Amino acid sequence: MSIERLISKSLEVLKEWYDGERPSADEPPDRYVVCAALALLERMREVFPLREEGYITEGNQVRTGGPQIKAILGRFGENRTYSKEGGRTTRGTRPAAERFADWLNGVKEISSLADSERKQVAHALQEWLVEHPVKEFFSRQRISVEINLERPGPQIVSDLLKAAVKKKVAGAVAQHLVGAKLSLRFPHLIIGNFSFTTADEQLGRHGDFVIGDTVFHVTFAPMPPVVDKCNHNLRNGYRSIILVPESRVPAAVAIADQVGLKNRIGILSIESFVGQNLEEMGEFSRSGLAANVESLLKKYNERVKQAETDHSILIEIPENLQ
Questions:
Q1: Peptide bond preceding 222 in cis form (omega within 30 of 0)
Q2: Same domain, 104 and 227
Q3: Same domain for 165 and 267
Q4: Strand-by-strand arrangement of the 239-244 sheet
Q5: Do 80 and 87 touch, CB atoms closer than 8 A?
Q6: Strands 239-244 and 214-218
Q7: Tally of domains in the chain
Q8: Containing structural domain, residue 49
């Protein structure tokens, strides 16, 4: 078999493995999956077939890391940071690497190649990974934020909102974070999920969300009209809660006070409403908090995909949560 045909065959194997790693048909695999393949192909440049002792450390981690992945990408002219840890600390990296090794070892013809030819195949496969999943990751322009698990839940939510403010999508992100929180907290209930740009009046809604007899209004900039909506809710037998950023709570309270509703409307910060729940559901442990932040972001992305056509408000799930 010519080297060209072998590269073509190997690429088909790579693509088939990659598609099998997708969490859903329209969702790309996580970055750690791509990092695992890049690292194993780097090992393949030196030896083939791939054996576990060659790519798994004594600490049961894949021999990968941020500097290695950065160096591989740099070889192909990509100098942006794709993964700080290279998937090394992510629990899913080893299973992904093992599956890839099985697929690649199935291409028996690679064993008979000279060193230079084997490196040529590895180069071609790494190039495909850089040109497709890596560059597609950068082109998706998701919201990127570092999650520091040493910070309390409300501060983590604050960090998410600050990242959204930078992209000028804070209102939409706030609404869908609250929706995700309610979905996780009340899995037995159907939580409404509507586009951020759809006005309540268009669909005859009482507010952004209704749980029991309580209507929730999520807004990044509290103004008199939202208090008017709350007054309408009260007159129709509902309780009403306004959720705003921590810094806007005094303004919302002042507006409600002007119309005599200060003591009839609940006014809470988005950060505390979402973040405190993450702490409680995680039983106030660091590992529980990490698991619940990951669940929140996954549920958030799921709801955004269902309700919005603009997927730039999706949030990239940080490696330290996976």
A1: no
A2: no
A3: yes
A4: 209-211, 214-218, 239-244, 266-269
A5: no
A6: parallel
A7: 2
A8: 3-140
